[in-house]
Structure formats: structure tokens, C-alpha cells
Specification:
Length: about 325
């Protein structure tokens, strides 16, 4: 009987599911809405994300993953079960073989928690793959060749940086600074400069619309609405892309510093390969405008973003399970 093979990118911000032969079939935010009074789950995924910051006291919107690792085991298991069933549809399959990716810096305990949650969610077999390897496969890099490739995967909770050669990681670093920190930096900036209190969802909108990491040729403006810290009344202010560059500067430079630190530890031959081939960015955080230019400016190495950075890790995880299935077909 044909098994269903799945790859799951279990991210801090969103969960993507890849099914062998079909590609990425599901992409939903990793948010769960829970009713404290009835102790029931109200919504999972996009429906729950819309409730963030807008729930009455008895309903809490939880992000069960923090900085790439499980912070609430029960909720993660429930969420995974829901997404696996949604991805498979109503058809009854034998239990799927699932590959799940984890940040490169996770501990054995954290890895075991992901594995257990995946088994509980209905997997027949679980394979754990490190995020940078999955990102490289998904970005179309042939990782089996004996040459150095540098991949920087900027997710919601972690940024994974790795130098890959001959199918393995030579040097890597995982820092807990990523897309969510861009949002937090915008929230802090608006509060200190304009006395304006905004939520994470508003900060994310501003980041997508005018956020940038490098000085832009043409300045853009965007109205930001929130609550005045002193008066408590709703206020709207117009902010510029240059102000957003200022707000995001420190966070972006921390990522650049981590990239430089990994480059410094890289063996000379592989460093020469990276110099020739460039740095590849994946993950939702890599969509921040001007980030390629900033990294290139600070390292002197050409930097490019993968074709579809948001789904690269999920595709890579799925392809990894396909690759294994090729010679392990039961």
C-alpha cells in the first residue's frame, strides 16, 4: 500500500505541510485560541490569528511555539493533529511518515519533544531534519556536492545560519532573533518616538508595507493606528520607510553579526566557495526589503533570496522524506 509521506515546517509564526507528490498543501499561522472557562479549543490557525489581541478575557490566543521550540506541549500536539488531518482531507490513509524540521541549535530534549508530539498527532514514523539542511534542499541547492554553501533561514522565532557541504552541516549557529523581533522593534520604536501603543499584528503590517533594512532610493509613508500612551485615545500617525529602517537597524545588525561569526569559523576552502557562490536567504524574515543589500554591504558577499523563501523549508523537509522513501519504500 502507498504511504502518505509528509514534511512539516513547524515554525514559530506558521506551520507549513508538504505532501509527497502534491507540494505544499497547507500554510497556517501557529496560533491556537483556547477558552479558559469551558477548557475547549475555539480555533486553530488563521481563524485563531484573527483573534490575536482581540479576545475577551476568557479566550486566550496562544502561540505554542516560542523561538523555534515547543513551549506548550499539549497545545502543539492538538495543533499538529488538526493540521495533519486538514492536509490529508477526509480520506483514510494509513498513518503517514512525517519529517519535521527543527532549528539547528535545539537540544536533544527539545528534539524529543517535537518527535513525541508528532507521534501523538498520528505519525507512523518520524524523521527530524535540521532547518538549514531543509532550507538548502528547498532552495534548490545540491547539498551532496563537496562545495560550501551558506544558507541563512530567517523564520519567526529563530535565524538559522549554516555552511553546508557533502550533505552535512560544517559550521552553524542558531540565534533567537528573527521576524518576531522585527515586529517587537517596531512596537518599541512607535512607543518611544510617538507615544503610540500598537499591537503585534499592526507592527507586522507596517513591516510588510514599508519595513526595510537598507536606505531606500525613494521614501514611502504609511499611516499607523494605535492608542496614545498618555491619553489612551485612538491616534493615527504617518511614518516613513526611513524611520522603519532606524527601528529595525539593531535587530538586522545582530543577524549580520551572527553571519560574520559563522563565516569566521568556516574553513578557508569552503569560505572561498561561499565567496564565489554567495549567501542564500530563506524564511519569511528574508522578505524584509533591503536585507540582501545590508548583508552584502557588511560582508562583501553577494546575497540572494531563494525563489519562494516562505515555503523553502517545508519543500526541503518534504523532499528529504521523498529522498529517504526512494530507497526505503516498504
Amino acid at each position: 500500500m502507498q504511504y502518505t509521506d509528509m514534511g512539516i515546517d513547524l515554525g514559530t509564526a506558521s506551520v507549513l505541510v508538504y505532501i509527497r507528490g502534491k507540494g505544499v498543501v497547507l500554510k497556517e499561522p501557529s496560533v491556537v485560541a483556547y477558552d479558559r472557562d469551558t477548557q475547549k479549543y475555539k480555533a486553530i490557525g488563521e481563524d485563531a490569528r484573527l483573534m490575536l489581541g482581540r479576545t475577551p478575557g476568557n479566550i486566550v490566543a496562544i502561540r505554542p511555539l516560542r523561538q523555534g521550540v515547543i513551549s506548550d506541549y499539549t497545545v502543539t500536539e492538538k495543533m499538529m493533529k488538526h493540521f495533519i488531518q486538514k492536509a490529508l482531507g477526509r480520506r483514510t490513509f494509513r498513518k503517514p511518515r512525517i519529517a519535521v524540521c527543527v532549528p539547528s541549535g535545539v537540544t536533544e530534549v527539545e528534539k524529543k519533544a517535537v518527535e513525541d508530539a508528532t507521534y501523538q498527532a498520528g505519525a507512523r514514523e518520524v524523521l527530524i531534519i535540521e532547518e538549514p539542511i531543509a532550507a538548502a534542499i528547498g532552495a534548490g541547492i545540491d547539498i551532496a556536492k563537496p562545495c560550501g554553501n551558506m544558507i541563512v533561514d530567517i523564520g519567526g522565532g529563530t535565524t538559522d545560519i549554516a555552511v553546508i557541504s557533502l550533505g552535512g552541516t560544517v559550521e552553524s549557529a542558531s540565534i533567537k532573533i528573527a521576524g518576531d523581533d522585527f515586529d517587537s522593534a517596531i512596537v518599541r520604536y512607535m512607543r518611544s518616538k510617538y507615544n503610540l501603543f500598537i499591537g503585534d499584528r499592526t507592527a507586522e503590517d507596517v513591516k510588510i508595507k514599508i519595513g526595510c533594512a537598507f536606505k531606500r532610493a525613494e521614501e514611502e509613508y504609511y499611516p499607523v493606528s494605535g492608542k496614545h500612551v498618555v491619553s489612551g485615545l485612538p491616534v493615527t500617525v504617518k511614518v516613513s520607510s526611513e524611520e522603519m529602517r532606524e527601528a529595525l537597524e539593531d535587530t538586522c545588525l545582530k543577524i549580520v553579526d551572527a553571519i560574520r561569526a559563522v563565516l569566521e569559523k568556516t574553513p578557508p576552502e569552503l569560505a572561498a566557495d561561499i565567496g564565489a557562490r554567495g549567501i542564500v536567504l530563506t524564511g519569511g524574515g528574508s522578505l524584509l526589503r533591503g536585507l540582501e543589500d545590508l548583508i552584502c554591504d557588511k560582508t562583501g558577499i553577494t546575497t540572494m533570496t531563494a525563489e519562494d523563501p516562505m515555503t523553502a523549508v517545508a519543500i526541503g523537509t518534504g523532499k528529504y522524506v521523498e529522498y529517504l522513501a526512494g530507497y526505503r519504500e516498504d
